[in-house]
């Protein structure tokens, strides 16, 4: 794994922690955990989530190695009972909460820090049919050095491309610490046989992808076939090997916040390292209330004895002001543990330039304009 | 960055909790470097506070003959201004001015003309809303976020709403041509100075009454700014009169024989006195008094929003809200989970400078109120309830109280029965819906209640059985000018807001 030059050993530590091991993770593919959990979980139907969470020992470390949550994935019935036992989301309340957080006033030093952090959290993305090696090279150069006029400007977290361009991106970013993320699994619709999705995943990993952004089968999820979604995520996770798995829920197609919460837990139980809102190909893409619900899910998953899972809103975040609102929501929902590129990312392309303009303004005291940042 | 992980685990151990959200930068120094919000103070420059204020009678500012009082900024204890104390003679003059305006101008004016003035006032409030929000925050101690996003928008909305009624009274359901009462004597509290003023003045004027209003002695400044705004709107002299002062002024006002209508919002104790004073007279009375509202959380509630709702119900305006959800009734099966989430959320409350745009909880309005809160909290501890306060640094000067929650509270404790009127929550549990309803209703008050459940049928069944003027479903402390508000029993009588609110100011 490439080291991120701007993070320290301690900050990077989570990346090396245990969960990804297929088979032992809660969301690992069906194995002894699931067999052992067996039928006991069925009795928890009704309100399993909160009972389970309450019954679990209070973890005194962020990442415990005992994961009783595996009981929830013992069978299709247990999984359904667990997901439907999660507390509901009140739409009005959730939207009011983010609206209020949106009024936070982040100025001066706080703004500078937020801008810097947001730049470091960007997955600079190009996912077009028209993508070429040249386009990816140019994007990679931008990722390494977003502001050519200011060497103190940090690099972004990753570059996100289609699988066939991973090799190019990898070559261009060698030694930079910027990771290469690849979408896979028949992105963006996910409508292909599992073998094809796994083959695509393996291809991207073999080409050097550090991170895989997969899409879930929304059709199966909406039809209530949670087990099928679980199996697919677990299988892709296994195919990822050492690469990190981001699971795209495509919240614009799940529509309700209850679905978003259930899909978040499903993905985490199945082994996701990150949960991600959207492909960017469906409207609406990332929204603040959806992100709030997902952030509550990663927070609660850790508190219930699971791992620490990252979160990535993607699509539709275009301004520094928006990005700062997201950081505020992260800060006041999950706390500062998640305010790190290892645990929170922005999937975006045009956002970077706005962040750079704002950053230049913070330093210079005046706005320069779009011609003082590069167009890629 | 390097401190992040150790910082977290140290904090988690300290708090004995698991929670990642514990870390608002200011209360967790180990993580301060990640993303501490820099101070974001709203500028005071927009507000001009005079060293002293007179009474507003007959469209002019006239000196008071009953002496003077000082109003302080509760966040700093700085004296803001001196204001006149209206004597009985001053009250007499104000009532006479209101009477003259009523008889000669306002009651004769067509509703459509009165509406124009009310619309003009509403627009002026919107135009001056930033100034008024800052002034309210300075004089009351409440955070600018609330005055800016809640108080002032609602104040303007009330004037707009009742402006719309002024020429439609014959369609309000009170007969073909309902008549006004005459002069309304109105006494308002310090917790929402300008909003309570709007609740009182807007319907009174819309119906054709004139008013003499007395603001609370700790928060007279926005009412005096409103007086000036009335002149700016060219409101005929005497239609609105503002007399400042303390209890004696209020007593003189409500007892004045020239008042046709008495409207009071404030404590149950004072409300009783007013009811006694006007008993047997022809005065029409509405009282909006105290409360000890229950917020009922069932085990199928939307948990995260319920936590937000509990926060809003008791920490909004520092809990100095008559309809505050000061009793949390939580179903026993989710008590631990809910309390854990509530404490985690309480740790993120930002307590401090009311003018900082990121402040969630401001200052307690007065030293006297702080003493009352402190006394009741001490009683709660002495009676054996378990106290937990959010860790926060309180400023050295001013009146402050940290957001506090009491667990192991039993129904006999004073903190479960008496209105604390501060940021103090008492948690009780229940097992069945019947028990929840019984416990919620077990109070002499009956102003408001909240119910949290995702099950619609239960929501309706429980709401129907709660004896409270307002029941909020999966939300709390939501106000709208079109929605009536008011209490049962010791929480008062009469309704304010909407078409219902017109009745109090019409001769029907």
TrEMBL record, chain B:
User: PANTHER family from the xrefs?
Assistant: ALDEHYDE DEHYDROGENASE-RELATED
Comp. bias regions, Basic residues: 1-11
- Protein name per Swiss-Prot or TrEMBL: Aldehyde dehydrogenase family protein
- Where are the active-site residues found? 288
Q: Which residues form the Aldehyde dehydrogenase domain?
A: 62-507
Pfam families reported for this sequence: Aldedh
Give the GO molecular function terms: oxidoreductase activity, acting on the aldehyde or oxo group of donors, NAD or NADP as acceptor
Region listing for Disordered, in residue ranges: 1-26
Q: Which domain of life is it from?
A: Bacteria
Indicate the family of this protein: Belongs to the aldehyde dehydrogenase family.
Q: What keywords are annotated for this sequence in UniProt?
A: Oxidoreductase
């Amino acid at each position: 794994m490439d080291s991120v030059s701007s993070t320290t050993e301690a900050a990077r530590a989570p990346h090396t922690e245990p969960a990804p091991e297929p088979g032992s993770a809660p969301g690992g593919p069906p194995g002894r955990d699931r067999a052992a959990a067996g039928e006991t979980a069925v009795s928890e139907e009704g309100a399993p989530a909160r009972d389970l969470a309450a019954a679990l020992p209070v973890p005194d470390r962020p990442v415990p190695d005992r994961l009783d949550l595996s009981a929830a994935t013992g069978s299709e019935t247990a999984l359904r009972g667990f997901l439907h036992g999660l507390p509901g989301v009140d739409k009005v309340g959730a939207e009011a909460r983010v609206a209020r957080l949106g009024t936070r006033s982040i100025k001066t030093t706080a703004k500078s820090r937020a801008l810097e952090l947001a730049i470091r959290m960007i997955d600079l993305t190009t996912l077009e049919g028209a993508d070429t090696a040249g386009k990816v090279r140019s994007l990679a150069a931008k990722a390494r050095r977003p502001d050519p006029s200011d060497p103190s400007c940090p690099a972004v977290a990753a570059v996100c491309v289609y699988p066939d361009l991973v090799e190019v991106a990898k070559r261009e970013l060698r030694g930079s610490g910027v990771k290469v993320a690849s979408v896979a699994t028949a992105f963006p619709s996910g409508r292909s046989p599992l073998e094809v999705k796994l083959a695509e995943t393996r291809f991207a990993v073999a080409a050097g992808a550090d991170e895989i952004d997969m899409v879930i089968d929304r059709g199966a999820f909406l039809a209530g076939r949670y087990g099928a979604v679980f199996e697919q995520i677990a299988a892709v996770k296994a195919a990822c090997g050492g690469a990190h798995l981001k699971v795209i829920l495509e919240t614009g197609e799940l529509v309700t916040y209850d679905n978003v919460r259930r899909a978040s837990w499903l993905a985490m139980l199945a082994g996701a390292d990150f949960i991600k809102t959207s492909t960017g190909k469906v409207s609406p893409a990332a929204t603040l209330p959806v992100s709030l619900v997902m952030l509550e899910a990663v927070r609660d998953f850790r508190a219930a004895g699971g791992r620490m899972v990252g979160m990535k809103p993607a699509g539709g975040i275009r301004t520094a002001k928006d990005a700062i609102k997201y950081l505020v929501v992260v800060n006041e929902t999950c706390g500062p543990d998640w305010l790190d590129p290892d645990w929170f990312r922005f999937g975006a392309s045009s956002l970077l330039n706005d962040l750079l303009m704002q950053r230049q303004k913070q330093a210079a005291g005046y706005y320069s304009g779009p011609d003082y940042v590069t167009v890629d | 960055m390097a401190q992040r992980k150790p910082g977290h685990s140290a904090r988690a151990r300290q708090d004995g909790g698991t929670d990642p959200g514990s870390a608002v930068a200011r209360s967790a120094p180990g993580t301060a470097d990640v993303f501490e919000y820099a101070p974001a103070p709203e500028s005071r420059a927009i507000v001009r506070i005079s060293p002293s204020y007179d009474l507003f009678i007959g469209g002019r500012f006239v000196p008071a003959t009953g002496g003077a009082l000082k109003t302080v900024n509760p966040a700093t204890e700085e004296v803001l201004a001196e204001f006149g104390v209206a004597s009985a003679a001053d009250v007499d003059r104000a009532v006479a001015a209101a009477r003259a305006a009523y008889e000669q101008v306002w009651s004769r004016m067509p509703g459509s003309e009165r509406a124009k003035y009310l619309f003009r006032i509403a627009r002026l409030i919107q135009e001056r809303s930033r100034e008024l929000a800052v002034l309210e925050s300075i004089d009351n101690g409440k955070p600018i976020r609330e005055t800016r996003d809640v108080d002032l928008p609602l104040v303007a909305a009330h004037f707009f709403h009742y402006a719309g009624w002024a020429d439609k009274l014959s369609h309000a359901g009170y007969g073909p041509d309902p008549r006004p009462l005459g002069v309304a004597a109105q006494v308002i509290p310090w917790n929402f100075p300008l909003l309570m003023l709007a609740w009182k003045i807007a319907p009174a004027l819309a119906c054709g009454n004139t008013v003499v209003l007395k603001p609370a002695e700790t928060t007279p400044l926005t009412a005096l700014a409103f007086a000036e705004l009335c002149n700016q709107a060219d409101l005929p002299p005497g239609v609105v009169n503002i007399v400042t002062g303390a209890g004696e002024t209020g007593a003189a006002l409500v007892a004045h024989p020239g008042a046709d209508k008495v409207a009071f919002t404030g404590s149950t104790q004072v409300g009783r006195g007013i009811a006694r004073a006007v008993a047997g007279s022809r005065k029409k009375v509405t009282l909006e008094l105290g409360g000890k509202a229950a917020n009922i959380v069932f085990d199928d509630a939307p948990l995260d929003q319920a936590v937000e709702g509990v926060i809003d119900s008791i920490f909004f305006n520092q809990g100095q809200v008559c309809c505050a959800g000061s009793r949390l009734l939580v179903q026993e099966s989710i008590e631990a989970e809910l309390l854990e989430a509530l404490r985690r959320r309480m740790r993120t409350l930002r307590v401090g400078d009311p003018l900082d745009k990121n402040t969630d909880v401001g200052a307690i309005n007065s030293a006297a109120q702080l003493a009352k809160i402190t006394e009741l909290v001490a009683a709660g501890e002495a009676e054996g309830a378990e106290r937990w306060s959010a860790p926060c640094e309180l400023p050295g000067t001013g009146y402050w109280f940290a957001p506090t929650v009491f667990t192991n509270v039993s129904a006999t404790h004073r903190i479960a029965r008496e209105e604390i009127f501060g940021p103090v929550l008492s948690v009780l549990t229940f097992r069945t819906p019947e028990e929840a309803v019984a416990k919620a209703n077990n109070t002499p008050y009956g102003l408001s209640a909240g119910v949290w459940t995702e099950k619609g049928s239960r929501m309706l069944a429980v709401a129907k059985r709660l004896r409270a003027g307002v029941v909020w479903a999966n939300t709390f402390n939501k106000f709208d000018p079109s929605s009536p508000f008011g209490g049962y029993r010791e929480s008062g009588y009469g309704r304010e807001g909407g078409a219902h609110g017109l009745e109090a100011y019409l001769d029907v």
